[in-house]
Amino acid sequence: MSKRVNYALFAVVVLAALLLPLTSNDYLIQVATGIAMYAALASSWNLIGGLTGYPSFGNVAFFGLGAVLAAALSVNLHWPYIDAALAAVLGSGLFGLVLGLPLLRLRGHYFSIATLALAEATMAVVTNVNFLGGGQGFSLPLLGSGKIFYYLMLGIAVLAAAGTYLIINSHFGNILLAIKSDELAAQSVGVNTVLAKSTAFALSAVLGAMVGVVYALWQSYIDPPTVFDPGITVFMLVMTLMGGAGTVAGPVLGAVIIGVLTQLAMSFSKNASSLLLGLGIMAVVLFLPRGILGVHRPAKGGERRGARPLRG
């Protein structure tokens, strides 16, 4: 019965999301597109931070790299944008896999600092390579209406949530949860933890890059400070922790809550959204260490009730 209720609620939410553009309210569609975008990004972060227990502060590198590579191939080499987008997503995934092999040998705050440095280094390289736009960025042609980009972002968000569900209920998901619970114990029974973590990192990179290639076309102009903004990773992290790290719906719920509250705050003051984000981080750490969906979820593995669920 519980599963039927969950499936029914999921169907209602998806149906409402599909029918939203019928309102013909451009502002509402734009806000909903942004929420769908961050729901997908938060879900991508959840793969490495929530399921595997490695809190990354550099996932914006994949989002930015996907956007920049797609724009560079389209503008400089005149590739059809869909071909450029596919190449950018695959390239970002390979980038995540290769760099994940050495980075994921680190743990805890060492890993977090290393991923933050990765994002900054990636932006520095992009800024100094003319083919990748340098400091000027790229201008892309305006294609399609706001509704098209809403459906594209919504599709990626649904794909990310569905992928998380499949992973959680698979053998691979059990490996990731075992790594999060006790990595040394997982290694002792023959699990190749480095390969498993790197695969999760690569999947996270692929999802982030998919959002990036759509974002570049949606905005029609991108530059390094915009697509490599560290605040994007902070939003991913806060949204996931608020909704419930390691769950399917947690990142989506967090994105909806933070997205709606941010828009309400910005209606009063532009600085209010930053204040709201800071308060949100404090509230999560102090009152919801397991997230909204984790309040009634029994602790698993080595987690204590009330303990922070993310550990390296």
Automatic annotation (TrEMBL):
This protein's GO CC annotations: plasma membrane
Pfam families referenced in this protein's UniProt entry, alphabetically: BPD_transp_2
UniProt topology in membrane: Multi-pass membrane protein
InterPro entries assigned to the protein according to its UniProt record, in alphabetical order: ABC_transp_permease (IPR001851), LivM-like (IPR043428)
Lineage, opening ranks: Bacteria, Bacillati, Bacillota, Clostridia, Eubacteriales
Major localization listed first in the record, in broad terms: membrane
A GO term, aspect molecular function: branched-chain amino acid transmembrane transporter activity
Protein name (record): Branched-chain amino acid ABC transporter permease
Subcellular localization, as worded in the UniProt entry: Cell membrane
Keyword Hydrolase: no
Originating species: Desulfotomaculum copahuensis
Signal peptide interval: none
